[in-house]
Amino acid sequence: MRFEIVTIFPGFFAGIFENGILRRALAEGLVTVGVHDLRAFTHDRHRTVDDRPFGGGEGMVLKPEPLAEALASLGIQPKAERLKGTGFSPYVDAASEPRALALEGNISEESLPASRPRVILLSAQGRPFTQALARELAADERVVLVCGRYEGVDERINHIYCDMELSIGDYVLSGGELAAAVVIDATMRLLPGVLGNEASGEFESFGVADAEIAVAEDGVPRSQHGAGGLLDYPHYTRPADFGGLRVPETLLNGDHSEIRRWRREQQLRKTLANRPDLLEGATLSKEDRKLLEAIRLEAE
Ligand code: SAM
Asked: pTM (2 decimals)?
């Protein structure tokens, strides 16, 4: 899989890819990353990438021409061209012309042909980046990440080139670079061969449900099985006593099915406490629902 990053701060990424799993994945060629300096696509003495906003207001806006040139240098055509002949509409409203500048320019993830490059605009106004979306991006061959700065990117770049706008959370960053790094990190660790333990991406927070994983019922429990959209359970390592707290006895007794049950209960407890919203979309068994009920009653 290849990521392309378009940024005015290519130096930002210098250290980011030099540690841990990402470094190994790059070294082994499981993932490649191209960092492209937007200023290389300017033609004036000052290498200008921004200008004042039409209509007034604070801040500056990234100009469309250098971005369009940068994307062209990566072989990225306007999405109308990219999708020609595929039967897919580049616009949610198929009747809208590129020049009409309707804001609904995002192609839904389901509608994008997998073999095409996916162009993503990092934006606080984007749809939320989730583990499910990371899983989906991990199936792509090439993802282009456009990093905004200042007040953002001229909207025509979004409309003409970008398949989706992506936000990494409900807060405003000063640039898209951190967001791009987050998207790359979360996505590349799901690529086959990147994590030491092939299945661990499925057994952590926001993981898929049991039904979607080949799970062995016996053996050491890596987890309670697929997270099914819940948060992960708490993890402990040696020493067994620390800070006056002892590791839960269940984890020490070697009874795998008891450990699985304990972990599932902890997942339910954590999710209920920290992210109750996730419970609505989670895959819950009858036993899970009973446990949840008991946990809720206990809290009353
Ligand atoms: N005026 C914009 C707004 O209010 O939505 C904020 C622009 S922000 C200061 C500059 C750039 O940072 C954006 O163009 C985007 O690329 C990036 N950015 C900021 N917050 C982000 C977020 N939550 N997720 C992804 N990218 C973000």
From this structure: 0.87
